[in-house]
Design goal:
The complex is a heterodimer. By secondary structure, chain A is α/β, with parallel strands linked by helices. Chain A has a single domain, classed as Aconitase, domain 4 (Alpha-Beta Barrel). Chain A has 8 helices and 7 strands; from the N terminus they run βααααβαβαββββαα. In chain B, the strands form 5 sheets. In chain B, strands 4-3-2-5-6 form a 5-stranded parallel β-sheet, with helices on both faces. In chain B, strands 16-15-14-17-18 form a 5-stranded parallel β-sheet. Chain B is an alpha/beta fold. The chains are: A alpha/beta, B alpha/beta.
Chain lengths: ~170, ~425
Amino acid sequence: MAITAKAFKYGDDINTDYIISGKYKFKSNDMAAMSVHAMEELDPHYHEKVSPEGGFLVAGTNFGMGSSREQAPLVLLGSNTKAVLAKTFARIFYRNAINTGLPVVECDTDLIADGDSLELDLEAGVLKNLTQGTEIPFAPLPPVMAQLLADGGLVEHFKKHGGFAVR
Amino acid sequence: MTQGKTIAEKIFSAHSGTDAHAGDIVVADVDFVMGQDGTTPLAIRALENMGVEKVFDPAKVAVVMDHSSPSPIEGVSALHTLMREFGKKTGAKVYDVGCGVCHQLIPENGHVVPGDLMVGCDSHTCTYGAVNVFSTGVGSTDGAAAMASGKLWFKVPDTMKVTYDGELQPGVFSKDLILALAGKIGVDGATYMALEFHGPVIDALSVDARMTISNMAIEVGAKAGLMKADSKTLKWYEGRGDRAPRPVDPDADAVYAEEIVFDASAIGPMVAKPHAVGNVSPIEEVAGTPIAQGYIGTCTNGRLEDLKIAADILRGRKVHPDVRLIIAPASKQILLDAMEAGYIRDLVEAGAVMVTPGCGPCVGTHNGVPSDGENVISTANRNFKGRMGNSNAFIYLGSPATVAASVIEGVITDPRKYFTGGEV
């Protein structure tokens, strides 16, 4: 299924403290309440800009560096972020995103400008920049992660198989 | 002929029952699973959503209240209650407020031993690489899966070999060595890789000092920061827990993705400047920068040796009147040992403020949030904007000696004068 939404573009090395500050993540387990603070350190208006119609968070290298906090992908989901597109990801964030159902796409984000309209079809492996009339190639997910996403995330995978059934 | 293996490849082979090499995906048995108060509540929720009521082995799971502890607000109190109830229900070990930082408690209490594979819901879980444990940070859902099944899937990482030749100069410490690496390869220089630390300088370090280096492996994107278990490691483990160490050495013909060699003799005190850990300078470039707060503690530098280094500099001297010095020992045991050794008296008489063993002000939840425009010099591992709870503050990272020397003068100060001139 293809998703169409606007690109919200940021830079390199965006760490999880910027995605959700430690001062908020310790306050509660309520992700809806916490989501209003998503990306606050970099863009205080992220939640109000993205949440009404949804959007793609576009970044440079090493997106999600730093802490292992799973609140990071959760507040992005809570802000109606449809996927994160970056040149590279930090390892823990990448796993957490898949486990919680936030699609992550490694691609050349120089081909996307802030505000561009994008269409992403994860199953078909197609990313289109509708504004610029281009198609942006991206590498498919590793098979284990594709299987986890297909099952609906790690929790659903466990419910379905009673444990790890990846290979 | 079979190809030689790195420490990571050997530990993953032993824990997955496969002939594991870098790039392989394996499902491996984990020896221990840990969570802290910022991540365990989400892991508990994930376990509930999985319909799992028990952990795979209560003796192999611990949860630690350290990041926001004792609770500063009701919301955190509720999360701590959730963790205590989880411990009662499942039998998992609970380290309550005041016990210390998870990354001190897990090795200190012998929950992991050399040769183990473990995961923790905290990015600095890589700390125990210093005692030959493949330990790595994961998110709460991965942590929940590991708590439920005793297993997790892993991509066996490539390894970057980092060798420190030469010898450390007086006034230079393991923190300076790892900051030098962060400055050289950057904050994503080892993403997806394991680091292996070698060389005479590592061999000469204490276990405490080695943990500082492995702790910051994540700051260059690495999955683990491994060292060999030597006689010091095995001695350190005497009396800790009841499991026998199984040291794992790399093969002589192990294949490394990259190799970096430092001449440690040429490394001086290093400082990471705001707002990135890779933004590293020799101390000469930042000396004289005014500071309003110093912090000695954290899973990076809150150990007994760190408190001794600070006490040796501050003994008989005073913290500058315009500066607050906050100190959080990494565990209750360290606090007791530092009291016994007299370090706490030295530090408090010099003007330090002691806070609860735990994470202290590192992560911005309590115990010393800086004010707008203030500079902080800290022994922590991260200096991201807003990290200590105020986006308008500026965090510099250095060794305990650098922090101690700086709080005396009120400006960032090269600590070597306390070591080369025989003043200590």
